[in-house]
Amino acid sequence: MDKRFPQVAGQLLLIERELRQLGWWSDVPPSPEALASSEPFAVDLMEFDQWLQWIFLPRMKVILEQDLSLPNASGIREMAEMVYAGRQQETDTLQQLLKQFDRVITEAR
Known about the structure:
It contains five helices and no strands.
């Protein structure tokens, strides 16, 4: 098991909690077409927070549960900075959590 797994799992829980606190957690999934988007971050068919909830978090959960290889790099924080450029104060905690996730992913394995 990758030594980063516990830290990654913790970050994923914190990201989910923050999405819920922001009121951005949804019980209704995006359309099957949106979920099948091949664009980075599904920018063509989803909001970034939807991508976090419906694609990023579930994929990372599968990686952890099945003891698969973690990605070698992550640039999620940079995307969040662009998406939430005009909402820095509102999204500061989420962006910090994503920054921490990126840091954990890029740590030596």
